[in-house]
Design goal:
Strand content: 15-25%
Helix content: 40-55%
Number of domains: 2
Distance between the termini: 23 Å
Structural class: alpha+beta
Number of strands: 4
Length: 200
């Protein structure tokens, strides 16, 4: 019988070359975990607005989105204040909700809690799915409603929303596969490595 003793290292203890190998191995064997949430945000957006996304992709610096409008051309070509009014009249309840108020007090020894939403003061509602990318896809519409631009059509605005969503997805994808995130994941999960950077 013979016994072999090998040293194992934490991610901080690896040499630069071993760290690079460990990072490459992690990138090859790790799946981006938020793709489904990103897709759900896009699907919810499609349910509300008259767009149909036919193809899209992101990751690794290459991103694209292809879509077409499902409404009449007269609506797709609305612009400026007419477009702002159209969006306000047709999509206000999807974009905004009343400000939340709550109040509690003791009545006869019991705590009673009352809450309501304002019918006058509105707040941005970005709960398409509850994922933070909801904000990114809706942000161009809120910006447009705050200050309507005269030469932007409904089609252009939808394209801005989809491009914004794509940019946010690409950034999140890049952040996930960054070296900093790898080191953070390795530390959080107590990964150990051999001297050459392969996983223990």
């Amino acid at each position: 019988m013979r016994e072999i003793t090998m040293k194992v290292y934490s991610v901080e203890e690896l040499s630069e070359r071993a760290l690079s190998r460990a990072y490459d191995n992690w990138c090859m064997n790790s799946d981006y975990p938020w793709g489904e949430e990103n897709r759900k945000t896009l699907l919810e957006f499609e349910k509300i607005f008259p767009v149909e996304v036919t193809d899209w992709g992101y990751g690794g610096g290459y991103k694209y989105v292809r879509f077409h409008m499902t409404c009449d051309d007269e609506i797709a070509d609305l612009e400026g204040f007419r477009l702002a009014k159209y969006i306000w009249n047709n999509y206000r309840t999807d974009l905004y909700e009343g400000k939340y108020y709550s109040k509690g007090k003791y009545v006869d020894g019991k705590y009673q809690y009352v809450s309501r939403r304002s019918k006058i003061i509105l707040e941005k509602d970005y709960n398409l799915t509850g994922y933070y990318i909801d904000y990114d896809i809706l942000e161009p519409i809120w910006d447009f409603l705050d200050s309507p631009r005269p030469n932007i059509t409904f089609r252009d605005l939808m394209e801005e929303c989809l491009e914004n969503w794509l940019e946010a997805c690409e950034n999140d994808y890049s952040d996930y596969y960054s070296m900093d995130n790898f080191i953070e994941v390795a530390n959080a999960n107590n990964y150990e490595f051999y001297e050459d950077g392969s996983r223990f």
